[in-house]
């Protein structure tokens, strides 16, 4: 489960930037085609935040849908899985969105 390491990195980054101020909310963006499972991040968040100024913070996760463009037929389409195929059958695609993993904002006291 790589989500544990990812969540640990998120909490470490927050602690570095907030200088140990009490964190009340964390807002993440985890795209549907990022390869990261939001429910696993939610589970790990409580574990890695325990005993730190992030403990007890509300975790909000935005999950934008994936968007892709086919190199073969130039169609743009929605995608939500890690295996992305164009409706035309081509696997030659460019992901346009939904692959992000970022800390959108952090609220502190």
Could you describe the 3D structure shown?
With 109 residues, the protein is of the alpha+beta class. It has a domain at 3-65 and 98-108: hypothetical protein PF0899 fold, CATH 3.30.2320. 26% of the residues lie in helices and 32% in strands. It has two helices and six strands, in the order αβαβββββ. It has helices at residues 3-18, 38-49; strands at 23-30, 58-62, 66-70, 76-79, 93-97, 101-108. Strands 2-1-6 form a three-stranded mixed beta sheet, covered by helices on one side. It has a three-stranded antiparallel beta sheet with strand order 4-3-5, with no helix packed on it. Helix 1 packs across helix 2 (38-49). The longest helix is centred in the N-terminal third of the chain and has 16 residues, at 3-18. The mean pLDDT is 94. This is Hydrogenase maturation factor HypA. Zn(2+) binds at residues 70, 73, 86, 88. Keywords: Metal-binding, Nickel, Zinc.
Helix content: 25-40%
Q: What is the helix tally?
A: 2
The 3D shape can be described as elongated
Mean of residue pLDDT values: 94
CATH topology of the domain at 3-65 and 98-108: hypothetical protein PF0899 fold
* Radius of gyration, in angstroms, nearest whole number: 17 Å
Classified by CATH, the class of the domain at 3-65 and 98-108 is Alpha Beta
Question: By helix and strand content, what is the structural category?
Answer: alpha+beta
Strand order of the largest sheet: 2-1-6
Topology as a string of helices (H) and strands (E): HEHEEEEE
């Amino acid at each position: 489960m790589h989500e544990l390491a990812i969540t640990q990195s998120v909490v470490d980054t927050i602690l570095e930037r907030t200088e140990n101020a009490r964190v009340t909310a964390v807002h993440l963006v985890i795209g549907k085609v990022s390869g990261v499972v939001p429910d696993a991040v939610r589970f790990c968040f409580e574990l890695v935040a325990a005993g730190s100024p992030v403990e007890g913070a509300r975790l909000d996760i935005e999950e934008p849908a994936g968007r892709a463009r086919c190199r073969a037929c130039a169609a743009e389409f929605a995608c939500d899985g890690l295996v992305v195929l164009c409706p035309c059958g081509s696997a030659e695609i460019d992901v346009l969105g939904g692959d992000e993993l970022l800390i959108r904002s952090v609220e502190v006291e």
